[in-house]
Each structure stands twice: as C-alpha cells, then as structure tokens.
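Write out this protein's structure.
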Amino acid sequence: MLTLAEVDALAEQAHAGQVDKLGVPYIGHVRAVAAGLAPFGDGLRMAGLLHDVLEDTPLTEEDLLRAGVPAAVVATVRRVTRVAGVGYEEMIRQVAGDQAAALVKIADNAHNSHPERVAALDADSRERLARRYRGAREVLWPAVPEADVRAVLELVNPALLAELAAPGG
C-alpha cells in the first residue's frame, strides 16, 4: 500500500509537463483538490491527487493497483472519471450517488471555480464554466451532508460559502 506522500509523487510524475487552462503546472490543481479533502482522511486525499490520472494520463486502473494504490481509492477515481458516451450532467448525477466520489468532485468543482482561477479566463469561458459548475453544485452539494460541503469549501474556495448559505444553496 502506498502512503499519501507516495501517491503525491505518483500524481506528480503522471502529470509531469501538463499545465491547466491558466498555464500553471497541473499538479497544483490536484494537490488543491486533495487538500480540500483532508478532513476525510488519507484515502480521499489520495483520490483527490489521482482524480484526473485516468482521464488525462496514460495510467490505467490496473497501473494504479499494481503501484499499490488502495482498491477503494482506485474505485473512487474511476467513479469521477469521464467515460466516452456519457455527458457531463449524467456523469455528475452518477457521481452524486457515491459519497466519496461526490466529495472528490465537490473539491474539484470548488477549485475550478476559485475566483483567482476564473478571473484569468476569457469572458466566454468564465460564463460557460460558471453555468456548468453551478449546475454541478446543484446536484453534488445535496448528495453529502452540508457540514462536509462546508469543510471542503472552507479549505478550497471560501468564496462559495455564500452560495452554500443562500436559500436553495
């Protein structure tokens, strides 16, 4: 079984050379997602670190298992990974049915919605992604206890706490 530090190193190696939409090394995004999952233990932190490896790198589920990533972590990573032929909204509904996966996706959404990250995008992208992420939050947030959503937001994107507190949030 890998330690959290070893999974971090695996994620860093897997995402080596990748940058996000802002041109920042991609490992920063997955580390921010993992940091937001700290209250829920190392297993979810590992899933946060690996949440995009199946989608964005050549690594497979089998590679992760062979490397010593716990099977429960790999299962959560698989649940948050986009599958060909499944639209984003449907994937979000499926993720919402699994608490661990929902927490990972909530942390991912919170980081992708962070004001500093969003401000660097062009206006069309900001608007399109804001609608997409807001719609995802409407499905994901009710899927877990509000205290858990709050815990993630406090660590990843406190600006979203106002949305959580709003009626229907």
